[in-house]
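Thread amino acids onto this structure.
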């Protein structure tokens, strides 16, 4: 009986009930959208880092640190046999040295990064270097990223003087030719980096068989002479930033829940105030205060269920449409965040379920809180409409 009466009362509220349901449903959609967009952004950022640079971790030369370029020459090691024997899809040998180029009579410090051409572990646009001979000719072929080429004012086909120091400390210089200006999804391997063939870089720096690190597809156990850094350690700064973004998203989540809860709370307060005579009549006919509280709380339950239904009806087509267009983040090209392409939602059923249940519980709670005072009403005062001032 109570559910039937509660449904009729909820239905008769008309536009007010519809607006409560709609506001709550839009809040649910906004929460799921916010969480899923952040998931998609984080997934693409980490994926771009992994496929272009990090892979499954790095075996680094002891003491090597990308943040100390003046010490790069002091921290190289021959490739251990256990890593040398790995097939090319499972490892990528990298050598990093310091250098300077002189575009338009300007000094531009750069990182010389050599990568073996046979590797297929990392997704790098090195096709132009693969076609070059193993022995450098009159010039050293190089690939630049789009950001690097723009800042150095270089284009495909340009030549520029490169200066470096070999393993014996001797300074040498030769011309390099930009054989390609490639687009890198990961800006961290673009700006300030001149990409060379690994055999060319080893030859000009007299570091035959040496590396700064070896990227591998997974941890291979301890390797003598090298230290291993995990994916989490290599992406610590990015993961920390993404973790902070997730904290900030909780603030928006809380605001949306608060707004939806306030709308239900205000409706229940207004219901109790306007329907005092109805409450008094029910008490006069012998209905217990507890059952009356359940009656009004059940109306809030119907509002929460209606919000979940409307959120599903409106959200599914909206999310389907959004997945076909994505979210444009090209404005991030000038940052070091490794996401330049469109971001798509990463909708996780578990998070959607938790969001729906959380919103439902909160909506029921805020619907019940205002009607607790019904149990303290005097029937005679309620019949006169003066029980609640």
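Threaded sequence (389 positions):
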């Amino acid at each position: 009986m109570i559910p039937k009466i509660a449904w009729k009362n909820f239905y008769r509220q008309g536009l007010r009930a519809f607006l409560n349901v709609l506001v709550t449903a839009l809040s649910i959609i906004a929460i799921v959208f916010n969480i899923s967009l952040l998931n998609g952004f984080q997934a693409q950022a980490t994926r771009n880092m992994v496929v272009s640079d990090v892979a499954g971790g790095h075996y680094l030369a002891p003491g090597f640190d990308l943040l100390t370029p003046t010490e790069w020459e002091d921290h190289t090691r021959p490739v251990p046999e256990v890593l040398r024997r790995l097939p090319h899809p499972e490892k990528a040998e990298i050598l990093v040295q310091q250098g300077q180029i002189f575009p338009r009579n300007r000094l531009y410090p750069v990182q010389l990064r050599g990568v073996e051409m046979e590797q297929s572990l990392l997704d790098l646009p090195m096709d132009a270097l693969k076609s070059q001979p193993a022995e450098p000719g009159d010039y050293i072929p190089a690939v630049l990223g789009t950001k690097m080429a723009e800042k150095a004012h270089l284009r495909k086909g340009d030549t520029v003087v490169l200066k470096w120091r070999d393993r014996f400390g001797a300074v040498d210089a030769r011309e390099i030719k930009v054989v390609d200006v490639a687009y890198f999804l990961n800006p961290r391997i673009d700006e300030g980096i001149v990409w060379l063939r690994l055999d060319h870089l080893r030859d000009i720096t007299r570091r035959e068989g040496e590396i700064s690190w070896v990227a591998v597809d997974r941890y291979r156990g301890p390797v003598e002479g090298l230290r291993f850094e995990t994916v989490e350690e290599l992406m610590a700064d990015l993961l920390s930033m993404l973790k902070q973004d997730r904290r900030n998203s909780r603030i928006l989540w809380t605001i949306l829940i608060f707004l939806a809860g306030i709308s239900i709370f205000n409706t229940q307060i207004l219901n109790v105030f306007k329907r005092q005579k109805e409450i008094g009549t029910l008490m006069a006919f012998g209905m217990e205060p507890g059952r009356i509280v359940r009656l009004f709380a059940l109306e809030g339950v119907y509002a929460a269920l209606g919000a979940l239904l409307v959120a599903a009806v409106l959200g599914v087509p909206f999310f389907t449409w959004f997945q076909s267009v994505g979210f444009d983040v090209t404005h991030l090209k000038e940052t070091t965040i490794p996401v330049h392409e469109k971001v798509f939602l990463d909708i996780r059923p578990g998070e959607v379920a938790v969001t729906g249940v959380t919103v439902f519980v909160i909506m029921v709670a805020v619907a019940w809180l205002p009607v607790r005072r019904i149990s303290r009403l005097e029937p005679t005062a309620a019949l006169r409409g003066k029980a609640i001032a």
